[in-house]
Give the backbone structure.
Amino acid sequence: MVEEEDISNILQKDFEVSKIQKAMKELDDWSKDIIYRKFIEEKSNEEIEVILWISNDNVRQKLSRAIKQLKSRLENTP
């Protein structure tokens, strides 16, 4: 039998996923792409560098900016 707490945890996770998906849609294409490759595909910065044809420094910079944008949107999403 499923406990109420388990259902609550499942619903909370689903809510968080939908909140992240909504915030991701608001990002520019570069930000979406680099976040997707880093956290969904679990690519290293070096792999992203090769895929996107940008320097490792540029990968780190774009990733940092993308994470800041996503965090800001998540904090401002009800």
User: Anything to note?
Assistant: The mean pLDDT is 86. The helical segments are 4-25, 29-40, 45-52, 56-75. The longest helix spans residues 4-25.
